[in-house]
Amino acid sequence: MSVLTDRFGRVHDYLRISVTDRCNLRCLYCMPEEGVEFAPSSDLLSYDHIVEVVSVAASLGITKLRITGGEPLVRPNLDMLIKRLAAIDGIQDIALTTNGVLLAAQAEALRAAGVNRVNISLDTLDPTRFRFIARRGDLNRVMEGIEAAARVGFAPIKLNCVLLKGVNEDEIASFLQMAKDQPLHVRFIEYMPIGHADENWRNHYLPLSRVLEIAEEQKLQFIRKDGIIGNGPSEDYMITDGVGSFGLIHPISDHFCQQCNRLRLTADGGLKPCLYWVDELNVKSSLNDPAALRELFMRAMDIKPLNHEMAAKLANTELSHEPTARRMSQIGG
Questions:
Q1: What is residue 178's predicted lDDT score, i.e. its pLDDT?
Q2: Beta-bridge partners for 280
Q3: pLDDT digits (tens, 9 = 90+) for 268-324
Q4: Where is the binding site, in residues?
Q5: Rounded-to-integer distance, Cα 274 and Cα 256, Å
Q6: Any idea what the Cα angle at residue 40 is, between residues 37 and 41, rounded to 5°?
Q7: In the predicted structure, residue 186 carries a pLDDT above the cut 70
Q8: What is its quaternary makeup (predicted)?
Q9: pTM (predicted TM-score)
Q10: Annotated binding residues for GTP, as ranges?
């Protein structure tokens, strides 16, 4: 039973672990195209250190893990870390978030090591637009990764689509059709101001009410699903005249903080109670000391705020805390 309960009564049983801030893409909503400064390898938590932190977290009631980055599959021998994490007493579920480019070659090893589920970023179904959004890479390799994920038995397979006004909103109908035709869970995600909140973000922000409008226009048959598909904050819908489903993750237009059950561990050792705010507790000074690590997790509960206030950022109103300056790739997607 989890002892990680914050001041607002939210029980935490989920830890997202970034294993690297490096990525083989440069998606326009995540990081600049050039001049990205990555953390030196020596600054990253070793696999031994990650296993140590997770062992303590599991003793406090963490049962679910998600491995993220950057792009986690660029870190060598990731399946070896997964195998060790899966062996920790109390860990019941391990998921992976990836851009899919390297997934086809690693899917079988990751499944054998203990990954149960995958989330694959897919913001467009058009190869030319893929190069515009990701600034490099090949859409075909992502599609091969999706096929490999199905072949080795990952379930459910979630596709994460960040909607950008004026960029890919015209593909909402195509993604909904994909969810109707294939046993996939397509999740539309609002563009978040993580690490930046300039006019470019405001200009490209699109509320997800537009997805439901287009679903109605398509005469798609769908019903709201109770519960959660996996561990995420998605508002989910089953397609009753198809084989898949879709979900809406709207941290800005309808934030889900009241159900938050997660903590984040950055690749360089920051324990973050909330994605958006600057607060981090560095685990490095507490390594090799289980009691100190336990105290750090309890401290994270004490400082976790009620919500992230991204909607206030969109409205240009005053915030109660200081937003992080770190981008999503530096925190863990």
A1: 97
A2: none
A3: 999 998 876 777 899 999 999 999 999 999 999 999 888 755 544 444 555 556 666
A4: 16, 23, 27, 29-30, 66, 70, 97, 121, 158, 192, 257, 260, 262-264, 274
A5: 12
A6: 135
A7: yes
A8: Monomer and homodimer.
A9: 0.90
A10: 16, 66, 97, 158, 262-264
pLDDT at residue number 1 = 60
| Cα dihedral 166, 167, 173, 177 in deg (nearest 10) | -170
Angle, CA of 45, 50 and 55, to the nearest 5°: 155
Q: Please give the full DSSP string across 129-159, using - where no structure is assigned.
A: HHHHHHSSS-HHHHHHHHHHHHHHT-SSEEE
Binding site feature residues for [4Fe-4S] cluster: 23, 27, 30, 257, 260, 274
CA angle 221, 223, 229 (to 5 degrees): 120
> What topology is assigned to 14-331 in CATH?
TIM Barrel (3.20.20)
Binding positions for S-adenosyl-L-methionine are 29, 70, 121, 192
The pLDDT, as a whole number, for residue 309 is: 53
The structure tokens 């660029």 sit at: 74
The identity of residue 96, as a single letter, is L
The count of residues in the chain is 333
Residue 265, amino acid: L
**Unique residue bearing structure tokens 């379930």:** 155
